Amino acid sequence: MQVSFTLEQVVCTVCAATAFVILYMHLRAPKGLPPGISGPLCLLEIPRERIWLKMLEVNRKYGDIFSGHFFGYTIIAIGSAKIAEDLLEKRSANYSDRPRSVMSGELSGWGKIMLLSNYNDWFRQHRKWVAQEIGGYVTAQKWHNLIEYETRRYLRCVLNDPERTQAHVRKNLTSIILRITYGYKTVDGDDPLVDLAHLANSQLSLTTLPGAYYVDIFPFLKYIPSWLPGAGFKRKSKRYAAVLRDLVEIPFEWAKSQLAAGAALPSFAIRLLNKPNLTEDYEDSIKWASATLYQGGADTANSVAYAFYLAMTLYPRVMKKAQAELDAVIGTKKLPTFADRPSLPYLEALLTELLRWHTPGPVTIRCTPTDDTYGGYFIPAGSYVFVNIWGILHDERTYTDPFEFIPERFVGEKPEADPRNACFGLGRRRCPGYFLGEPSVWLMCAQALAVFDISKHIENGVEITPKVDLVGETICHQAPFKCSIKPRSAEAKALIEEEFPCNDGHIGETGK
Length: 512
Hints:
By secondary structure, the chain is of the alpha+beta class. The chain has one domain (7-497): CATH 1.10.630.10. It is 49% helix and 10% strand. The protein is built from 20 helices and twelve strands. Strand 10 (470-472) and strand 11 (476-478) form a beta hairpin. It is globular.
């Protein structure tokens, strides 16, 4: 006997089955979870922007460890430094994986960079390679001359066109990482690889926002045709994947062509490509490890560096105090260098406060491969663990007046907690570029303070006070703002215009 079904019956059956599965998963919410909410209501609680503010809200309401459970997913939100350290540092073996990312990792293609990779052999190999290049202050010292050269180049750009300071900051730090990664020297003016990194990172930030795309909650949606209504995410991911391919392929192929022509400068990619008997898989791994360096070095450090100008605009007292220290220790006839860093404690405190006050990665996300318990609460395998880095670094229980920029909190006999561990990530996923990015930002701040006065912009006779405004999602920047940047003196202007020899520790060339 042949049985036939109408389209309406099929649709109703599918909907009923789906509802049953959802209800079944909801009823099976694990017992013993931390305080929180469960069920479809959780979907309404997922913010479309500034997730760190929503996390702060739920942690204040439910406690420093919060849980949400819906559609079979368990969310754990952590809002204290102690819990974050206890789990991500002391139990790092269970808190080093990333959650599955369908929109970003699979459809847009970002799954092979270290940022989204699970803690596996691929990740460990890439981290080992990066550590060999810049994995410690001593290791990264070979690039100090390069950093000084690019910083001088940057000062000249700010002097000539102060209204494009954000673009100059981005180019400075991206130029450093491009040279280290591929041996590529950026051209004067706008450089295509600098612009490419900025575009790709902007797209990466959008695709990794938790809850922004339903395909990350319901992965089966990745298989629907891109022409269907509601499948705009698939068309968008194709555009993003094309940009990512350029980010990965263009500089790598350029480096290979330089190597073949015998013109390659020493770099991360060239060092690895010089190994004998490279297999196709091994070369692919080198290519993605290089892309990780390029992508990471082109974003978070420049986010912090641009926020420096906002801090100096809003807190002129801090700027003047740092300049007084520089003048007393260095004088006004030369620019500060890395050799001067130990002699400048207030400037060190200023950088430390900058790392606390501005958080380029406000939330870090992990996924637990095995069950765990903490404080009597159950954390099941497969939980998505969110740590509010921004919230931790603005916690009034740890920092006095946390929304104010106060370098003095890090000097004296009882300094407040150093933010470096939290702001650069925790545990085994701590930022691998820390030993390069942190000194690069320090030198930029030191030399900018030595030669520039930074103040509020005046428009039609009215002083404009910029607002602290983080834009972006998983990778954030201060929103563009106007400020006045002028040389401190004719002597300072002459220092900026001096030529500086570039010797990156490997070659004796002179920068032009």
